[in-house]
Design a protein that fits this description.
Elements lengths: L11 H14 L5 H29 L1
Helix pairs in contact: 1-2
């Protein structure tokens, strides 16, 4: 299994902004809906990175 890229966790904030903007504009979410979408999408790259790193250390 390849090592995870070091820049992966830094995608969280830009993706969170995009999710909040697109969710609020296209899906017509209210403030809380856009906030939840931003939090979920923003933390997703961080979680994926940590799981990938854990699996890489476990296998290797």
């Amino acid at each position: 299994m390849p090592k995870p890229p070091a820049w992966l966790p830094f995608l969280g904030p830009p993706l969170a902004g995009l999710a909040a903007g697109l969710g609020g504009r296209w899906l017509e979410l209210d403030f809380w809906g856009a906030l939840i979408a931003a939090l979920v999408v923003g933390f997703l790259p961080i979680i994926v990175y940590r799981v990938w790193k854990w699996r890489h250390q476990k296998v290797g």
